[in-house]
Amino acid sequence: MKSHLRRRAENKIMTGLMFLFAILTIIPLISIFAFVITKGVTSINLDFFTHLPKPVGEPGGGMANAIVGTLLLVSLACLWAIPVGILAGVYMVEFAGPRIASTIRFTADVLSGIPSIVIGVFAYSLMVLPMRSFSTISGAFALGFMLIPTVLRTTEEMIKLVPQTLREGALALGISRFKTTIHIVLSTTLPGIITGTLLGVARIAGETAPLLFTAFGNRVWSTNLFEPIAALPLQIFVYAISPFEDWQRQAWAGALVLIMMVFVLSVVSRSATKRKYSFS
Amino acid sequence: MTNEIPFKKIWWEDPLFKSSTAFLAWFVFGLSVLLVFILGKFSLPSIAQFGLHFFSSTEWNPVTENFGALPFIYGTIVSSLIAILIAVPLSLGVALYLSELGPMWIRNPLNFLIELLAAIPSVIYGLWGIFVLVPFVRKYVEPFLSACFGFHPLFQGPMYGIGMLSAGIILSIMIIPTISSISREVFSLVPASLKEGAFAIGATRWEMIRLVMLPYGRSGVLGAVILGLGRALGETMAVTMVIGNRPDIAISLFAPAHTMSSVIANEFSEATTSLYAASLMEIGLALLVLTLALNILARMLVWSFYGKAKGTRA
């Protein structure tokens, strides 16, 4: 039998150790932020937002095309993936039986665990090979495919919370299932769906691997949907592994811009659901 | 007033709505099946050429068209194991601190910070890895390990910084949020009556954790760890930027290595012959199967835990 004193000491030591672990976990985060901000701020300038990349050896230049490219890729991805995700989620809760619903839920869960590089290879085989060119739309397809599970599961979780009585009330007034879903079910849960979706969008905005063989990157200006397009994460990757100091400097600037985009999205998404849902 | 109701029913809108949502749900399902099918189809040439030998051969030679995936499988497994070894104690510590031990005022901010870790894009981890982590590992971590455990071949050899060890460390940082957030949720579901029972017979807080919370949440925590492992196996960009990308099996953790995802990222767009591309596809397929299996296992564990937690509560 251990003495009381020893047990209390053990308790104190373990509490301290857990605290130490928590601190250890935070250190990389602080380091990443410190470096991205200090190195990013000193290397960012107006040219970065307005100029195209310069050839090797020439100093200056920027990532204007990559910033626009990322915005375009992410918007296109949202354009197809958000409606698909929301409507598939609606089907799961409103129409499907329990067995079909759990099949779709399982698919979505499994899909969210597939490595992003595999999604990239899939999009390459499905779109780049038949079209014989790297393209914006294949990149947007890959990113959207990664977004779907998040949107689908969020929609499902949210509209499950809508009480059955609310639907029945609307249906009893002779309103169609379609309009009940749009005006009652979806509109009451919209903030929640927006939060989940924006978190997903923030995640795909920073993805690099699915774009390697789809959007591919482009050193010149292009917004053509059927041609390779530059993207911020791709440009950061290429510049980060390059041996040129000026490029490495710009990689940090790009990282700062990317991290700002991602965090603005996350913070906005959180503010959309400050209030918790309660239907009582 | 005639039939002027604002939501006039049109006879076809409900059937159309139902069938279009059904179509989209099955569309998602179909795309996922197509993904497996396409990867399988495109790796057929390599499967036909090398068979099972593909997974046991260490030769990777695009010039002679001899492809074996063992170095990449080895790299993926070892780097993920290092990540798990570091991440599990840290994440469990964080999860316990956040759910039991820490003072209330610190829990929410700390939790927010750890969630931020999950939001950082992989390529930024890689950038930080190249310029901050790798020099740190080369200057401090590797000399330290070699001084302490240098008698073992794992910790011998030249210290580049770039290599297996750095990849494992960066992976561990990336999977901590996954493991800790699920574990935290699992711990929060331990019934208060069980915890209070432990306190009532005089257990200290740590004894309560060790004897009640950890055993109760075992399957859930295991699920969280496997989910983290799945994430580590598939992670691409950060790893490829710090691991050195050399297709050799070296005993030393200080040596450069290669993983399944990093070889696809590096070589896929240069794969000129169809056999080369098919071999890379097959690696992708293997990676897919591996992560699918782990994910399914993890979900089953977490679900079974939630089922149990609900049962006890009712």
Radius of gyration of chain B, in Å, reads 25 Å
Oligomer: heterodimer
Helix and strand sequence of chain A: HHHHHHHHHH
Task: Output the CATH class name of chain B.
Answer: Mainly Alpha
- Tell me the strand order in the biggest sheet of chain B: 1-2
Shape of chain A: globular
Q: Which topology of chain A does CATH recognise?
A: MetI-like fold
Number of domains of chain B: 1
**In this structure, how is the largest beta sheet of chain B organized?**
2 strands, antiparallel
| Rounded mean pLDDT score of chain B | 91
Poorly predicted regions of chain A are none
Order of helices and strands of chain B: HEEHHHHHHHHHH
Number-wise, the strands of chain A total 0
Question: How would you classify the helix and strand content of chain B by structural class?
Answer: mainly alpha
Stretches of chain B where pLDDT is under 50 for at least 5 consecutive residues are none
Which range best describes the helical content of chain B: under 10%, 10-25%, 25-40%, 40-55%, 55-70% or over 70%? over 70%
